[in-house]
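Contributing new records

If you add data, match the layout below exactly. Sequence lines come first and carry their own label; structure lines follow with theirs. Keep one chain per record. Anything else will be rejected by the validation script.
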Amino acid sequence: MENWIPIISLLLNLFLGGSLIVTLVTLRAQKKRALADAELAEANAKEQEIGNVDRAIAIWREIAERIGERNASLIKQNEELIKQHSDLTEKLSKLQRQVSRLNSINGKIVKLLDQITPENLEKKVSEIKQQISKNED
């Protein structure tokens, strides 16, 4: 029986040692697979991040284009308003000159009317008419 113990020990060592090798090989293969899966997940995450950045860029580009179009529209409206303001300012200036001229004429007419007496009525009326026709030209 003593002869059997080394044989059994050898068989157990081979059996257990063989499964240890198989276990080590299996663990190594699983490690490689896990690393490959991790690299794939990282690559997918980077790809997804790039896709998200591309979508964000497209959104910002669209916003910038809309803002640019709106800005161009507002610039055009502003130019039109500036022209209208210039035209209205010119018209206002003309009207102010006319009012000043008419006020001056009225002042002169009032002075002439104050000078009217029954003796010089026809003469003053003639002067007033001349003053009015002179200022209308």
